[in-house]
Recover the amino acids of this structure.
């Protein structure tokens, strides 16, 4: 209860800082979720029975493009989280709260920020799905720009003569229900990853605090 009380008190005293914190987590969740969604969308499109939009080599190239950016974003999130913890611990030197308790309090505050950011992202997707889809389309076209000599349309298999656009598979191949499933699955993975980074950051700074105290004793 003391930890919760300390955390709520800190949030109340630094509302602007807390608002900036969950806004940053919102951006991080959005980036990680969207990039993972695009990987899953490509997998869905590649396995479609209606039309083969990409060759296996093109699919691998696109998957690698989004995976590389997902990996860079994931590492960047972890580094930013460590920096955030470091800055907060440095600010704590002027406080009377024990360092370890402040570390746990900061971790709990970050977890609350993640929850708020997750709810906001879900609401954004639910209310403004067309906007979210257009953003995904933009990222998707950035990936397509890496492929050379790619046609704008591909004719369907058989003799129907239907042409499928390579630039808009989200709207032509996937329903809203499928997109929602992909979104929620990607969001859960993003939340798990950031929460894991949060736990690792808390453990790292607790260990550093213990090492510092043991050195001072000696």
């Amino acid at each position: 209860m003391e930890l919760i009380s300390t955390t709520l008190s800190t949030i109340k005293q630094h509302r602007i800082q807390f608002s900036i914190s969950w806004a940053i987590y919102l951006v991080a969740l959005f980036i990680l979720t969207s990039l993972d969604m695009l990987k899953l969308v490509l997998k869905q499109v590649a396995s479609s029975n209606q039309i083969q939009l990409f060759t296996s080599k093109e699919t691998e190239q696109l998957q690698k493009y989004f995976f590389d950016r997902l990996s860079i974003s994931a590492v960047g999130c972890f580094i930013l989280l460590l920096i955030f913890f470091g800055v907060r611990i440095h600010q704590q030197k002027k406080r009377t709260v024990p360092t370890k308790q402040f570390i746990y309090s900061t971790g709990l505050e970050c977890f609350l920020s993640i929850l708020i950011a997750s709810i906001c992202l879900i609401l954004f997707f639910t209310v403004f799905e067309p906007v979210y889809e257009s953003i995904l389309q933009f990222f998707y076209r950035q990936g397509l720009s890496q492929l050379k000599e790619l046609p704008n349309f591909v004719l369907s298999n058989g003799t129907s003569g239907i042409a499928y656009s390579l630039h808009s598979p989200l709207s032509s191949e996937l329903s809203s229900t499928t997109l929602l499933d992909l979104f929620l699955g990607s969001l859960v993975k993003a939340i798990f990853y950031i929460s894991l980074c949060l736990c690792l950051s808390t453990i790292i700074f607790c260990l550093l605090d213990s090492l510092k105290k043991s050195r001072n004793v000696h």
Q: What stands out?
A: The beta strands are 153-155, 163-165. Residues 103 and 205 are 7 Å apart (CA to CA).
